[in-house]
Amino acid sequence: MLDDFMIRALLAGLAIAVVAGPLGSVLVWRRMAYFGDALSHSALLGVAMGFAIGVNPQSTIILVCVGVAVALSLLERQRSIAVDTLLGIMAHSALAFGLVVMSFVQGPRFDLIAFLFGDILSVSWADVGWIVAGVTAVVLLLIPLWPRLLAITVHEDLARIEGVRVQWVRFGYMLLIAIVIAAAMRVVGVLLITALLIIPAAAARRRARTPEDMAAGASLVGMLAVLGGLGGSYWFDTPAGPSVVACASLLFFLSFLLPRRA
């Protein structure tokens, strides 16, 4: 019989894995891994701001992530600095400012390591409820957005000609990523969130015939990584969040042993 804390951890991790699959697939298709890093690093600034002003960090995480996403979408229009350079600047600047803001937080200090690397075994039923609610909202918003995301991924200019509002679709996708990051921080932490988005999607790519195949496969790989990582953490007493990502990495390398689907 599983302990109660393991059941909570499994529910939280599996819920995140389900929605990280399709969102991470879009990141892989659009070669936006650095974008995921920029948003995940900015989440730490959101945590620090939440504690500094005395509000729920989950709400400030979403606000900061959306603000960074909007800033990036505006800055990428200029041509003097490459987009990957901008993403690197934004990611590390947000992380640095988050650490600086933390130094001004009064009262008991929160566990920085838990926010950096996750502490899935400590999630409460309230946390599970928040994560499930956030994941449900993301899925409901993603369903109508999915065809438009595929259109701008295949050919952005053609999608614009056909009437797709590219900027709004981008913004909607960024908002969904921000919500997932806010929910996933307790699972794998700031520094490992992008790995949970990218690695399962990359592992599923070799066996996928359609975009939906890849999205579903990425969700499945993510769920297997959660199960394997938590199992390894339970039996070998290793840190849970990094164990989940390590298991996802093993699944990625094992995917090369399987033949590509034609």
Tag the structure with descriptive keywords.
262 residues, ABC transporter involved in vitamin B12 uptake, BtuC, globular
Fold and architecture overview:
The protein is an all-alpha fold. It has a single domain, classed as ABC transporter involved in vitamin B12 uptake, BtuC (Orthogonal Bundle). The chain is built from eleven helices and no strands. It has helices at residues 4-29, 33-53, 57-75, 83-103, 112-117, 125-154, 156-161, 166-188, 193-205, 211-236, 240-254. α1 runs antiparallel to α8, α1 (4-29) packs antiparallel against α10 (211-236) and α2 (33-53) packs across α8 (166-188). The longest helix is centred in the middle third of the chain and has 30 residues, at 125-154.
